[in-house]
Amino acid sequence: MTSQDVTGKKKADLKVVILGAANVGKTTLIHRYAKGVFSEHPNTLGASFTLKQWKNRNVAIWDTAGEERFQGLSNFYCRQAGAAILAYDVTERKSFEELKTRFTQLLAAAEPNRLAVVVGTKHDLVEEKGKAVEREEAVLLAKQLNPNISDYIPIFETSSLNGLGVTEVFETIFEKCLRFDAIATHLVNSTIDLSAQKKAGSNNSKNNCAC
Amino acid sequence: MSLKVYDIYPALEKLNSASDKAKSKIECIECSDKNLFIGTNDCYVIHYLLEEVKGRNNRLSFKSERHEHKYLGLKKPIEKLNVAKALKRLLVLCDESLLMLNMLPLEPVVGMGKIKSVVSFCINPNPVRKNPFSIELCIALKKRVVQVYTLTEDRVFVTKEITTQQPSVYISMNASYICAALQDQYIMMNTETSTVQDLFPYQNERTNPLITLIKNNEYLINGPNALGVFVTTAGMSQRPPLQWSESLISVVCSYPYVLALNDEFITIHSILDQQQKQSIPFQGGQFIAEFGDKILVSTHYQIFALVPISLETQVQDLLSDRRVEEALELTSVMGKVQLPGEKYHKLMKKVLLMAGFIEFANMNFENSTKYFLKSKLDCRELIILFPNLLPSDNEFSRSIPPLHEIADILQLCKGDAEKISLYEEFLCKILTAMELNDSNKQYKMESDTALLKVYAKNNYEELIKFLDNSNRQLHDECIDWLRNRNRHYALGLLYGIKNNWTSALDIWTKIADGELEDEMFPGIEYVLDCLLKIEGDELVWSYLEWALKKDPISAVKIIIQRQEKYPQSDLFLADSIIDLLLPYNRAVTTYLEHLVFKQETKEERYHTHLAALYLERVLKIRGDSTETSTYKLSTNTELVSARKDFQRILRESSLFRVHLILGKLKNTDMYTEMAILYGKLEEHERALKLLVHKQRDFVAAEEYCEMYAKGRDIESRRYLFHSLLQVYLDAKYEKIDNLIGPTISLLNKHPAEFDPVRVLQQLPENLSIGLISSFLSSSIRRHLHGSRTSRIHRMLARRQHLQVKSRVFHEQQTSITISDNQVCDVCNRIFDEPTCVRFPNGAISHIQCSKTSLNPFL
């Protein structure tokens, strides 16, 4: 029994959703990041959910099912996502094509200025099976999906087996999506501080006047 | 994780057909308080009263009583029944018509028509406009319209209408939101803003559209692929979906559980963790509905009640399966949700305790410790498992209902000694841990006693450490326990903790005397140390003699230190102590040394006594020694140090009776000492003679002079040094030549102390002048210096004399006049004769006045 309810009740500061064809290793990727170990998982039914703390902020990571029959639900679970991970298998051409045909359109349900990170999985299998998707193609896709981003390209090639690039994927997302947030709240806070001081000051002057 | 969350009981064994012709089948059910309404396939509404009956042993059963029935005459099955409690009405959906019946008796409401073309309807449980005498009704029509009605006693009217893309097949309304299943899509409608939000598609032919309200703003929807999808009114999901089985018929939510019915099973999920908790095989399920805190589920002919198993029972079940972790987790997750704070904590404590005992029985000590400490276990609960560890007069009895099934440790270990000792070790550890975090305060005596007993049995070293803490609270039973196990030393410690020092000392002295045996006994020093520390002078006094016998010096130290510590104590008077110490020479010496040197007592008898003791010792050593040669004796370190001590008192003390000591010394060759004594009597010549002629220690003789000369005037000094010179040059004792060396050195070293004229007269004629040249030249120098200084003195005196003379002369030059009017400055009367006194300040008075004490000028 996990206590997801307790944490689930908290309003998450960021919703991250992972999309991609069946068997590209979406659940494994999340599990690798959250638990730090490699594990194999049966097909995800519908969706599952992991809550992660990042510098006092709550991040809800939604894992979706890759099978086509869950397409409608995946769309639903994408709602209000601040970031999406579009995962494909670097050794499976079909998974990359499916990403373009089936999954990129799901991004419409997410936040308008969402971050879309293209992630190639199973990089450890390249030697054995050969690379089916060149990095350049993924870079191109990442650029297309994030027309507003110019200073970096959100694309990663990862391996959940040996941990290659896994942390970077999530850290980049949190860094990009939450840091700006953090600055904003900080600014708000400092404004409040100043006005509070002012208030105190005016109170004092009032007291002085009374005598 | 499988768990028993609900128990199933028959509630209505058999539905009695309303009509005799055909057998009615249950189509739908609805409850309100004890009223159970059944809608049948042949268009009957049947009213039952359903009651819970608690039989013996708290066994639950249900009693159903059929009341009345109403035939609606539509020949179609009744699809849905809803009670509108505020209006005491029953809403019936049958043949696409929504009818209204009065609940009691079941009669159609007069003047209320039916609403036609209704596909689905529901009552809004939380209407936005709250009028207690109206209800809000939401209806999906066959057309692509969803309508919201307000229903009062006598009126029904539409308040809102929303058009949808397709006709709705199932709706659920709460507050201002309507969640609806269209033919292939779920949607969320906001009646305030009339906005419609698509949720997700589903396949009508595969999925039975079902919508269940979970909380105010959250629904659970039967989604595609048998997923129970949570949807908030904002059109989002905040929980992962439930995994249901295919072909669900009916779903009901009883927080935090969701019960779903299909034709073979009732499956129960927890909303909190989305896991399936229980699955009850149930053939032919038809409908599932809430009934208070219970759930009713019907087949075509029967109704069963699902009764929630209390959290306590669930946890108990887990614990009896030894599923400790799960029980704890269930308690912490569900307890917080279901139970009020205090009850939760009580349950949690109980579960922790039981978990602790389960792990305890499994020898899983780490977990057991964790649970016990967390539960703040009453330590007696644990101690009582160990035979004889609780004091026999302790009235503690195990808590009821029992927390465990352990009779005692012996039974648990089946007598395996190794296991038992492991358990005992655990007991010690946990009791110590409890002591550290203070959770055992109330039962400190029981805890400490148990610890003592176990340590006494198994670990003597730990026992000693344990007893080294005067805050222990120990039962008197411990005394016998320790005695029976020959832990004598520990027993003494125990007496000490109980402040029974008499017994403690009694035991320890017995161990020290070898009457009792104890390997851990640290030795006599320990007892002596105690004698120093404990209070109660009489007690200490009574053991002093014992201590003196064992170690006189330490015993004396005890006396001294106690005296310093308790200066008022009148038991330790010097005289009585000395009397006590008398048999122990060294001890009495030490004590007297303390009195004389440290305390600087003024009592003559202590000084004399000490001096006599020193002397006695010196004489004893000399007497014991077979050596007669002086040289050999002088290398006898013991003797040397004894004499040093003796000399020390002779020199430093001036209070002892000199003649007494001197008399004792008369017949010995202890010339140094005798010299000191003569010195004390100011009989310097005799002293010096002894030193020079008997002792032949010229250095000592010179030092003697130096010592007595210190701080004296020149005459006394000269007397001393001349006495020594006289002794050196005295031909009565030996030839002068033998002493020429020291004589010369004396003269040359201290020329200032001699009168050279007398020296020259005394020195033998034939002495070479060269030997004393240093003495002579320095004498001459000093004399010359003296003569010159005298001259200067003389001249200075002369000058002073002249000055005085001059002043006298000047004074005599001035005159004073005494007239008739002149008044005496002292008595203020006139002078009647010319004689007067003049004061240095010029005042004049009668002669007699100058002598009176009144004279202000004197």
From the structure provided, what is the oligomeric state, counting identical versus distinct chains? heterodimer
Number of strands of chain B: 30
* Biggest sheet character of chain B: 4 strands, antiparallel
Low-pLDDT stretches of chain B:
none
Beta-strand proportion of chain B: 15-25%
Distance between the termini of chain B: 120 Å
Largest sheet of chain A: 6 strands, mixed
Secondary structure: helix percent of chain A: 40-55%
What is the level-2 CATH architecture name of chain A? 3-Layer(aba) Sandwich
Residue-averaged pLDDT of chain A: 80
GO cellular component, one term (chain B): membrane
Subcellular location (chain B): Cytoplasm
Protein name (chain B): DgyrCDS1228
Main location (chain B): cytoplasm
Question: What is the fold's blueprint, element by element?
Answer:
The complex is a heterodimer of chains A (211) and B (858).
Chain A: H1 4-9, E1 14-20, H2 26-35, E2 47-54, E3 57-64, H3 71-77, E4 83-89, H4 93-103, E5 115-121, H5 126-129, H6 135-145, E6 155-157, H7 166-210
Parallel strand pairs in A: 1-3, 1-4, 4-5, 5-6
Antiparallel strand pairs in A: 2-3
Chain B: E1 6-12, E2 26-32, E3 35-40, E4 44-54, E5 60-71, E6 78-84, E7 89-94, E8 97-102, E9 107-108, E10 118-123, E11 135-141, E12 145-151, E13 156-163, E14 170-174, E15 177-181, E16 185-190, E17 195-201, E18 211-215, E19 218-222, E20 227-232, E21 242-243, E22 248-254, E23 257-262, E24 265-270, E25 276-281, E26 287-291, E27 294-298, E28 303-308, H1 311-320, H2 324-338, H3 341-361, H4 365-375, H5 379-383, H6 409-413, H7 417-436, H8 444-458, H9 460-467, H10 477-484, H11 488-497, H12 501-512, H13 524-533, H14 537-550, H15 552-565, H16 574-581, H17 585-598, H18 604-624, H19 630-634, H20 637-652, H21 658-665, H22 671-680, H23 684-695, H24 698-709, H25 714-729, H26 740-749, H27 756-762, H28 773-813, E29 837-838, E30 844-845, H29 847-851
Antiparallel strand pairs in B: 1-28, 2-3, 3-4, 4-5, 6-7, 7-8, 8-9, 10-11, 11-12, 12-13, 14-15, 15-16, 16-17, 18-19, 19-20, 20-21, 22-23, 23-24, 24-25, 26-27, 27-28, 29-30
